[in-house]
Amino acid sequence: MKRVACCVLRALSRPAGRLGQHATRNTHHAARLLAVFLLSIASICPAAPGDSAIVLYNSSVEDSKSVASHYFTARGVPANQLIGLPLPTSETMTRKEFREQLQEPLLKALSERGLWKLRADATTREFNLTNAPAVTESHIRYLVLCFGVPLKITRDNSLAEASAEKLQPELRRNEAAVDSELAALPLALGRHQLTSALPNRNYAATNIATLHPTNGILLVARLDGPIAAIARGLVDKALVAERDGLWGRAYFDARGIRDGGYLAGDEWLRKAADVVRRFGFETALDDTPATFSAGFPLSQVGLYAGWYDGNVSGPFARNSVEFMPGAVAYHLHSFSAHTLRSADKNWCGPLLAKGATATMGCVDEPFLAGTPDLGVFFHRLTAAGWTFGEAAYAAQGSLSWQTTIVGDPLYQPFGRHPGEMHAGLLKRRNPVVAWSHLRVVNLNLAQGTSAAEMVGYLNEQAETKSSAVLLEKLGDLQLKLEKPDLAIEVWDKALANQPTQQQRVRLLVARAEQLTKLGREIPSLVAWQELAALLPPSPELTRVKQRLEELELKLKPKK
Predict the structure, then answer these.
(1) What are the residues facing 375 on neighbouring strands?
(2) 518 phi and psi, to 5 degrees?
(3) Over the chain, what is the mean pLDDT?
(4) Which of 9, 130, 134, 226 is such that its CA lies 20 to 30 A from the CA of 490?
(5) Among candidates 76, 181, 178, which has minimal Cα distance to 410?
């Protein structure tokens, strides 16, 4: 499929201001570096149209039809591609129910409505998995399951498959996520071995054209969550992010693993963090055994991935999480999507309830190799500009297994060229343009532009004066240039420009640490006291209290 990359020099360059001619040269130089970089990485894919999807709802659940209708209108899905089936109303269904009430009626509808054309032998006994995919022509690539469609297929102990005896005992299971089972439908029309996982022939795909029913895969995701309103809102937040950009900070929570059977999980996370950092996101990677604690300043979350807590924990257990519109969040755990109907159990439901736009999870034990490869996922989503559905299935090594994909599969947060996005935000005077300026800085720093040049760039932008986001970065750059007094001065300005609560915590920590290093004892005491009042019980609060004790002891009058 054709890729488009445009020069962004004009969109991202600005006239000189108070810094004069030298600053002008620096700013233009930074913009030129950005243009060259974007030309080398930007893979802009055409937006996935609504007519590439079918929408399926449970006609036995009124809210399911409501969510389907909302999505149908929001994405402009043709009427012929809206399907209602009477299904069980719980999150689970048996193999028999799946086959007779969902799989076979769906196949019939796809064929009768002219959306799929099947091979001539696809209905004969000779057809099997070793043949080419059963679908020879397809007018759709995506299947959207709506709130009320069951989440998982329960184990059928009566199912006996001779080839299953060759598998390891722990893999002799046939329960599965409904999404993952349907994703394999174009390959063998459900007649593949149901015991254990089916290898995804499209794993780590680099060409989105291969992610198609004629190549054996249907991109299945669901609009779901604890309540129907959350499910309905997933497409709304996706559309906002497609219009204004997915911005914010990226957080990756690895475990510091360097060898052993779980190394792959950490390597995926470290690779994902590197990809996203190079893409221009302000990125934090925690490479220690513990997960983020309750006191971690998790602010303005655009992207998140971590592991391995059983239930939502740390900063994600707060009453409010600072998710940005369009945020993609995933926590790797064997039962992260055991239910989607809870706002406080497991991970997927709580993440969605607190504002995430897209997530993934496992309905039952997948084993590590059966979970999404996060390095592949975040690369395809960001640098390659693929849709959420495309990125999710390129990252999945197994089908007919345990992964559910939750969110609008057509969601394409990075499908527009950054220069076009930046120019549009400036024209509309949208304040989120500050995040685009931040990306300019990070992209140039990644390419070797000096911190001094990027200080010049930020000082040239009118938005910097009133943006806590840009002022925080400017302070960070001043610190990098070994100018702590200037850093503190700029952070004070950031604190005066309405930072979010968690950004305020991070700014106060940075400020307090530098004041302490500079020996400014009274101001640093005040800063640590302010932090102590803001932090919940956590390792961070313990450290702050230790700093306070040290300062108070030092300031205590000597007898």
Answers:
(1) none
(2) -80, -5
(3) 91
(4) 9
(5) 76
Whether residue 463 contacts residue 456, with contact meaning beta carbons closer than 8 Å, is answered with no
Domain that residue 503 falls in: 467-559
What is the per-residue pLDDT across 36-56, written as a single tens digit (0 to 9) for each? 444 444 456 676 789 999 999
Is this prediction's pTM over 0.85? yes
Tell me: do 490 and 376 sit in the same domain: no
Is there a domain that residue 187 lies in?
A: yes
DSSP state of 300: S
Kindly state the average pLDDT of the residues 525-552: 94
> Among 360, 389, 406, where does a domain finish?
406
Number of residues that this document lists for the chain: 559
Q: Is 547 inside any structural domain?
A: yes
Which single residue is written with the structure tokens 């109907």?
Answer: 341
User: How far is the C-alpha of 338 from the C-alpha of 503, rounded, in Å?
Assistant: 32
My answer on whether 61 and 176 are in the same domain is yes
Q: What is the 3-state secondary structure (H, E, C) of 388-454?
A: HHHHHHHCCCEECCCEEEECCCCCCCCCCCHHHHHHHHHHHCCCCHHHHHHHHHHHHHHCCCCHHHH
Cβ atoms of 373 and 357 within 8 Å: the answer is no
85 token code pair: 């089936």
Residues 477 and 383 in one domain: no
CATH number, position 519: 1.25.40.10
Q: Is residue 447 part of a domain?
A: no
Q: In the prediction, which pLDDT does 121 show?
A: 82
Query: Would residue 57 count as lying in a domain?
Result: yes
148 and 57 together in one domain = yes
Kindly report the number of other CB atoms within 10 A of residue 415's CB atom. 18
CA dist., res. 282 & res. 12, Å (int): 19
Contacts of 212 (CB under 8 A, 6+ apart): 138, 141
Closest by alpha carbon to 272, among 332, 215, 322? Answer: 332
- Closest of 457, 392, 478, 465 to residue 217, by C-alpha: 392
Residue whose C-alpha is closest to residue 157's, from 218, 211, 96 = 96
377 plus 517 within the same structural domain: no
Q: Clarify whether residues 471 and 386 are in a common domain.
A: no
220, 145 in Cβ contact below 8 A? yes
pLDDT digits (tens, 9 = 90+) for 144-193: 999 999 999 999 999 988 888 889 988 999 999 999 999 999 988 988 89
The torsion defined by the Cα of 335, 148, 414 and 431, in degrees rounded to 10, comes to -100
**Domain count for the chain:** 2
Neighbouring residues of 413: CB distance < 8 A, sequence distance ≥ 6: 238, 241, 242, 245, 246, 326, 328, 381, 388
Q: At what angle do helices 468-480 and 501-517 cross, to 10 degrees?
A: 20
Q: Name the domain boundary from 360, 382, 406.
A: 406
